[in-house]
Amino acid sequence: MMRKIEDSPLYGIANPKSIAIFGASNRYTAMGTGILTSILQMGYEGRIYPVHPSETTVLGHTAYQSVLDLPETPDLAIMVLPTRIVPDVMEECGKKGIKYAIVVSGGFKETGRDGAVLEDRLKQTADKYGIRFLGPNCIGAVNTHLKLNATFMPCEHPPGFIGMASQSGSFITQMFAYLGRYGIGFSNGFSVGNEANIDIVDCMEYLAQCPNTKVISLYIESIRRGREFIDTARKIAPHKPIVAYYAGGTEAGRRAGLSHTGALAGEDRVYEGVFRQSGVIRAHSIEELFDFCWCLGTCDLPAGNRVIVQTHSGGPGAVAADACARSGLELPALSESTRQKLSEYLPQTASMNNPVDLTFTKNNMDFFVEIPRILMAEPNADALLMYLMLPRRNITRFIESTGLSTEAARAETEKFIAEQSRQLAEAMLASEKPWVGFSYYSGESPFIRGLYDAGAPVLPGPNRAARAIGAMVEYKRLREKLNASA
Amino acid sequence: MDIIDQALARNQRALSEHEAKNLLSAYGIPVTREIPATSRESAVDAAGQLGYPVVLKGTGADLMHKTESGVVFVNIEDEAGLTGAYDTIAERLGSAFEGVLVQEMVSGKRELVLGLHREPQFGPCVMLGLGGVLTEVINDTVFRVAPFDEVEARDMAAGLRSRDILKAFRGEAAADMDTLVHCLRTLGRIGLEHDSIAEIDINPVIITLDGGLRAVDALVVLKEDKNDAQN
How far is B225 from chain A (nearest CA, A)? Predict the structure, then answer.
């Protein structure tokens, strides 16, 4: 395990001060042009050197016929070139003294024998010059904190805390908008492609050390260095959570082994064991992968699996309780002291069981701040799961009924919602126990939008929220297991 | 190890049950007391030494799944039962018949399966599951990559859906977890130390009334040629 982040090959990939890009032109349909456009649009502040055989400028930047002509040795080369010339370009980069590269080009090992031969040549050339490279057949890399988006898709979400390594580039680039919708995002994203030189294990080591990364997220189709994966993950997981989605199929009995063991060892079962042994939290969908990252990156860990559900609507509370049970969570009864403290805030109609169903509170802020504060002090509970909604139109209607004009009522509504949202987010983020919201509203509701923007976890629906709390409990257990081993 | 080398020299695809148990026993995995016999008389002697009731299993070249072949008789209570079973086994196996294995009869309601196989990317992997004839149907199994420590072995057992059968169960004592941990870790060690072993099945491992473990049947499959061993 490396000691300093600078020792990681990914450091060079993710933190270049200057970049040579091959395959960008003034033709907007070219993939290389798309990547350079992404780099420029995000506002990368380093120096950019397009290399192009005939263009003199590319997207406004001076272009060079050969990498050897560049006025300096850039930190990183990005290649978006026809497959057959990639090894030669790698050779030239080596001669120039470049040490890091991203090979976006496909057509290598993934296409068959000829491609594999070419990939071997590429690897040998890189080795000869000590070049470390991502890919080939990948979609690039992103470091939002450096405003570096070396991928084909625009990344508009704010710098985030999820460090992702993916064997599918789509789960980097096509997640930009998805994550942005919830106000979360990648710190770094690495599309590893064929993993000819840098693999998932290298990425995990980098992300473990990366100060902007709070949670490591993996999309895995196949682990190439099995033992190294386990050993590395076991060293990282006590300090930083790792969440993985594994897409290997769910087949059983694919083997023609002579033993029962061989027949029972479906890939999925083996990976299940590998993840647990590695201290890696397993997600069962891509949504869940990022739900888990969201909560693990924003909440303190729960001490145990006891959850209080707070709601003002019966159905959503009941569904949340059901979802908790399914996720291995318990709903403890409230202690007498908690009940006493609550009673001054609650109307006659409220239930002081768990779920705590408030039906209606005298003062909105009681629901969002005062009551949860009491529930958070409950010694028998480890986390709070809270139903959230604050529909704008309803509030405007109520305010109008006090005699204000529609316009004034609307302005008052905005102010009111923003204030509620702000105070709730503040309380959620300051909580020492996990405090997770769930809602059937999303960013279209200004109240929920405000919570997203402040960084508070509000998951779509009770099932996803309960699963995410379950994942935090699981992480705590895995961490304790690894610490017991150490 | 001699047992393996000799079997390889004889071009065996797998160790015989008795060889497999000798191997496991040498590593401290508890196996049934058993005596091979090649005649009715020596089988009767063996049963006398072990004490009735006994189990009688036919042995023959490349006979890997004996239950399905109808050459396993359990709970034999006396000499008449033993000689009758012996004759039936000899008849069913015909020219493949080599002899029998006389085993102590192990009682216990709970059966586990332990195993070892190899994964190209992970190397030797150890399996723990609910054992017995319903193993494949119930399919309650957990895996770990060797080597792993005691904490991991215990976590493995905790990962079974049917983990509660390891606790005290219907008048039978809780399973001896230290022994189970030892067996799981040892299987991994065997996988790491012997490239020539492709797969191991220990099915069932019976949890005895007092919570002890006993490997009642075992299969050790060898690699077809040494080149496979590079996995």
Answer: 15
